[in-house]
Amino acid sequence: MCQSQKVSFSIAVMIQPESGPVCLLGTEFQKKVCWEILVAGSEQGIEAGQVGLRLITKGDRQTIVSKEWSISATSIADGRWHIVTMTIDADIGEATCYLDGGFDGYQTGLPLSVGNGIWEQGTEVWVGVRPPIDMDAFGRSDSEGVESKMHIMDVFLWGRCLNEDEVASLHASICSTEFNLIDFPEDNWHWAYSPPRVDDWDSDPADVDLYDRDDVDWDGQYSSGRKRRSGREGFVVHVDSFARRYRKPRIETQDEINQRMLSVEMAVKEALSARGEMHFTDNEFPPNDLSLFMDPKNPPPKLQVVLEWMRPAEIVKGHSDSRPCLFSGAANPSDVCQGRLGDCWFLSAVAVLTEVSRISEVIISPEYNEEGIYTVRFCIQGEWVPVVVDDWIPCESPGKPAFATSKKANELWVSILEKAYAKLHGSYEALEGGLVQDALVDLTGGAGEEIDMRSSQAQLDLASGRLWSQLLRFKQEGSLLGAGSPSGSDVHVSSSGIVQGHAYSLLQVREVDGHKLVQIRNPWANEVEWNGPWSDSSSEWTDRMRHKLKHVPQSKDGIFWMSWQDFQIHFRSIYVCRVYPPEMRYSVHGQWRGYSAGGCQDYNSWHQNPQFRLRATGSDASYPIHVFITLTQGVSFSRTAAGFRNYQSSHDSQMFYIGMRILKTRGRRAAYNIYLHESVGGTDYVNSREISCEMVLEPEPKGYTIVPTTIHPGEEAPFVLSVFTKASVILEPL
Prior knowledge:
Shape: globular
GO cellular component, one term: endoplasmic reticulum membrane
Radius of gyration: 29 Å
Active site: 344, 502, 522
CATH architecture of the largest domain: Sandwich
Family: Belongs to the peptidase C2 family.
Low-confidence stretches: 19-24, 28-78, 110-126, 128-149, 176-249, 636-652
Mean pLDDT: 72
Domain Calpain catalytic: 279-580
Protein name: Protein DEFECTIVE KERNEL 1
Strand content: 25-35%
Helix content: 10-25%
Structural class: alpha+beta
CATH class of the largest domain: Mainly Beta
Distance between the termini: 20 Å
CATH topology of the largest domain: Jelly Rolls
């Protein structure tokens, strides 16, 4: 493809203007501005809250709608985040600009002359705070010296013209999370791009490089003769670097995460003090039926047990130790006791976490406080979010909590953790039923999966011994495990002591003296335990085995051992959460919406689904790489007026059967027809919040294409695609 051939492309930028005028997007051709978008502040008759967009061809101003400035009243300059998208259609010679996906009513198109060079491959697109050429091109010479300031959060570039549905879908998917800011002009770094000439459209586009401002001389002069200040805050991209997502790398450290959580808690404490109040009551999750039930007008009978809400000091009255505390010594799995709520799945995950001494990290200030303010952190869509709760506890009688509590009557942490998770989901009732691995993912930020022991693959792995080896490896690597018993039995508790349709903690996996054993915990934390071989009082125990496994039997703690063979008979599922350091996670956010909700390969619209390229970089590109890929659906955020987040989980939105395919298509979007040799892996379609697959990818210079889908077209939902790997990779939309 020759360098002068014209191409269609699209560019989108997420911005937060603070003052103007600001040139957001621009391109130059033969030292002339071909087109630009101006985000204007309160300047020269352009009122704050308005945006001017125009096209300049060969130095002569052309406007989008009228002969003068195209001005449309919007709220773009009020400090909110906005997404401005420009699409260039080379076939019909038209450019279209969208503000916030067109949802704010601002969408306009304009014709482009064929000879202005704007579509030529190699054309540079300038993104930044100040215009790329003289200020007189704006017709606003009095703007010289005006301080301009803007934050850029993310930049997208495609080598094609997006349609209206895709622009709307892009807006929705971007707004489902927050990306790392690229700040101008305070930031010590700016982005500059000067790639080599690319003659072949299919050639790999170069990466964006960072340059220190002191090392690059951007000084120049306006045509009016006034010297422009140094430091052209912005960056340049090429239209042949399409389908790339430019982000300033930023990974929060553990201390930074905790500090961010703590700042939220401190803000609540300061507000409480300013009101002159002694004890905190959370109005977002009040101590009444609104917090107990999904529909307070139609509460489930089994949960109508709460008679009153009590503070910890009232609950512990009459107990031997009447001083409430958050933790009474180190947390232990045996501390966790389930109440009247059917959230064994969550409490099993909590118990597993105490086994590896990580539960105290979840509660930000692990000390009891008189104000009753506690902040719990959860990892949602790869981002740690704070949930602040008070210490009002629902009770079924004076001094007796209705739901989860600690075996130590004066210890508060179990009740606080459950309350925070209930607030995250909207109510206590919303915690009725769930999967252990989902809770483990939310508590740790890891990657979850469920192993169905009835599946054909699991049966093969059981017969070969591979599944047992996997469990040993999971424990050695620090993964967290749970187990689920089969449901549908005629009795709630089987004759062998296993609760039916129940979630358990899988605490240990051991092979000692030829015996394959697992240690399991029932979150009821009572005498309901396994009573078969290797149970607390069974004859299999010898002094040597007790010593080797440090087994001290207790009749009413819910913890027991059983053989691996018996486990296969009495349990149906194994839940796994692999815990990775933050730098091993690569995530992109997407959405099946409208055009892009294409369904599975049984439909002609399959290729319309969002597609992503995964490519190893650097030295890792020459060797096979091990990857663990997850697809998570139906999770989104909304922000309250106070700035806190509400979590929309699978309880609040319809769950679909989802799956994904991993293809070897030279880094391109997959077409409708896929050849057998192109498919390298994937998943079955499962009705679950998260699905996953693990594989080793052979070196492939162009990378692999990942296609996440629902099973039927028209099923709309947000999703997150994550790749966990030690290798250096790029995960980007196609």
